[in-house]
Amino acid sequence: MARVASIARIGGHIALDFANTAGWHASDEQSEHLSSYVEWLAWVRKSGLLPPAWMAELEAEGARHPARATRALTQVIELRELVYRVFAAIARDRAPSAADLSRLHRACIAALGAAEPHWERGQLSLHWPHPQADLLGPVHPLMLAAGELLNSASLARLRQCGNNPCGWLFLDQSKNGSRRWCSSTECGNATRVRRFRARQAGDA
After folding, report:
1. Beta strands 123-127 and 169-171: pairing type?
2. What pTM, to 2 d.p., does this model score?
3. 121: which residues sit within 8 A by CB, 6+ positions away?
4. How far is CA 156 from the centre of its chain?
5. What value does the CA radius of gyration of the chain take, rounded to a whole number of Å?
6. Domain ranges in the chain?
7. Element at 100 (helix H, strand E)
8. CATH top-level class for 4-203?
9. Do 25 and 166 contact (CB within 8 A), yes or no?
10. pLDDT tens digits, one per residue of 17-39
């Protein structure tokens, strides 16, 4: 399995990149990239979500309390799946379930409640204090980012990879809005090869 820090960030938004931390996400046999709390922190570090000092504290705390770290990872994955379900439904022009929307709303409220406001460069910004024992702390900015995307004009560009069951989500930033795959060189080529072989089989 590839290390999670090396997984492509194709979402165009941090909440979608978080949702994409499982391979073949639309299948019943998805490949889990968040295989340990250490791997989760590696993904967080690569995303630049938290200051290095907090990352070091979380690593130390997770190493001291592996059972707590495992429980925290389980909650992280549950929230990742929540974000995925909400945005995958929207990408398919469906309404997310009321239960999922309610849970995401509560997660956003919890993230706001854990934050401290600061006035910087003429605008409001949020920072999260980093108590060493809060192994779930890194999910707060992710939940808030997901909530902000739900209310963003960018949501109109939300797409799901056309190479089923890849399932990865992304914002289509192409000029004509024609992007169909998470990666043209991987899922795009795989789809084209599959269609070519199907045509050959049909002509045989």
Report:
1. unpaired
2. 0.90
3. none
4. 18
5. 19
6. 4-203
7. helix 98-114
8. mainly alpha
9. yes
10. 999 999 999 998 899 999 999 99
